[in-house]
Write a structure and sequence with these properties.
By secondary structure, the protein is α+β, with helices and mostly antiparallel strands. Helix content is 34%, strand content 25%.
Length: 122
């Protein structure tokens, strides 16, 4: 087993059968302080922690499954909340899809019997 200290963390490496592994030994506080670039000994005061908690509670996370949109780096619009992965189309494709919304609804209703439906989560 190999060990070495890097930036205040311990790295453990070795082999398990034919598979090489590497383990980073650090506390969450060490990782946080390393990430924010602070001193490993710095701590937030009670008032700072309380203010941070209130700030986080004032902005609740978006409800999972809620439909929302983002513009990507390449100019595509991604729709999140439809499934595991976002659906990304360019402006002209979204316009074409929206223009055909009525025919899509009619097609879905006509073929409803052959479509797989997900159970609604309770």
């Amino acid at each position: 087993m190999r060990t070495r200290q890097t930036a205040g963390f311990w790295l453990f490496g070795g082999y398990f059968g034919a598979v090489e592994f590497l383990v980073l030994a650090a506390t969450p506080k060490q990782i946080w302080n390393s990430w924010k670039g602070g001193n490993a000994m710095s701590e937030l005061s009670y008032e700072e922690l309380k203010a941070k908690l209130e700030e986080l509670q004032s902005h609740p996370p978006a409800a999972s499954g809620a439909l929302h949109f983002k513009v990507g780096a390449k100019g595509g619009v991604s729709a999140y909340g439809l499934g595991r992965y976002p659906v990304t189309l360019y402006y002209e494709q979204w316009q074409k899809l929206l223009a055909g919304a009525e025919s899509l609804r009619a097609f879905l209703e006509a073929n409803k019997g052959g479509l797989k439906m997900k159970e609604a989560k309770a």
